[in-house]
Design goal:
The complex is a heterodimer of chains A (90) and B (131). Chain A is mainly α and 90 residues long. Helix content of chain A is 48%, strand content 0%. In chain A, 7% of the residues are buried. Chain B has a domain at 34-118. Classes of the chains: A mainly alpha (90), B alpha+beta (131). The interface between A and B is medium-sized, with 22 and 30 residues.
Chain lengths: 90, 131
């Protein structure tokens, strides 16, 4: 048989679409939808893992946290004298 | 009693004058009447950090007074803290402990939780680190 009689004047079937395989293509509609659904489900699962809730109480920044009691005791006498000396501003 | 030489009498007079001036200065170093009134009226309170705070609604006059006094306090704290080898915040906080303890009944002060309290007859609520 001659080669021309087998394939006629048609091009070779190089793509899946040309092979009549429309349902099984790598990015066929159904597969894309399924992949999208998996992606959405995965995203939702992730957001469920890390839940951040707004605090119900105001955030108080304690600036005096690093002041040690020993230091306060040491300075106490000096501070008392200073307060007495500057009685107009205290 | 022998008469003192003229030079000595002059020095004694000068000394007495200096002492009188010293007493006058000590009497002068009192709180400004507006400050005293704002304190006893509960408009201004002692904060736990060693500075003054406005308790209720802030007016321009109260803000000006509080800022002025706090700037002066900070200058004193800075000077004394440097001499004592401490930070300004440490010195101010220590002073705050004492200033809250010294408040008179009716005056306002800040409790450790940050709320304003009115000083009663009992000891004020202070930070656990206060002596």
């Amino acid at each position: 048989m001659m080669r021309s009689q087998l394939t006629g004047s048609f091009r070779l079937a190089t793509s899946l679409l040309m092979q009549g395989n429309t349902q099984m293509g790598p990015w066929s509609g159904r597969r894309a939808v399924r992949a999208g659904m998996i992606l959405v489900a995965a995203t939702m699962a992730c957001t469920g893992c890390i839940s951040v809730n707004a605090p119900d109480k105001p955030i108080v920044i304690e600036l005096n946290i690093n002041i040690k009691q020993e230091v306060v005791y040491r300075l106490s006498g000096d501070a008392a004298q200073t307060i007495d000396k500057h009685s107009d501003i205290f | 009693m022998p008469r003192l030489p003229r030079l000595n009498r002059k020095w004694i007079a000068t000394g007495a004058a200096i002492m009188a001036l010293g007493l006058a200065t000590a009497a002068w170093a009192q709180r400004d009447p507006a400050y005293s009134a704002a304190r006893s009226g509960g408009q201004i309170g002692e904060k736990s950090d060693g500075y003054l705070g406005i308790v209720g609604a802030a007016t321009a006059e109260l803000r000006r007074m509080v800022d002025d006094l706090n700037i002066k306090r900070r200058a004193v704290y800075s000077e004394r803290a440097q001499a004592a080898g401490a930070t300004v915040e440490e010195y101010a906080f220590t002073s705050g402990c004492r200033l809250i303890a010294q408040t008179q009944p009716g005056e306002k002060y800040q409790a450790p939780d940050g709320s304003w309290q009115t000083r009663g007859a009992a000891a004020p609520l202070r930070d656990s680190r206060c002596p």
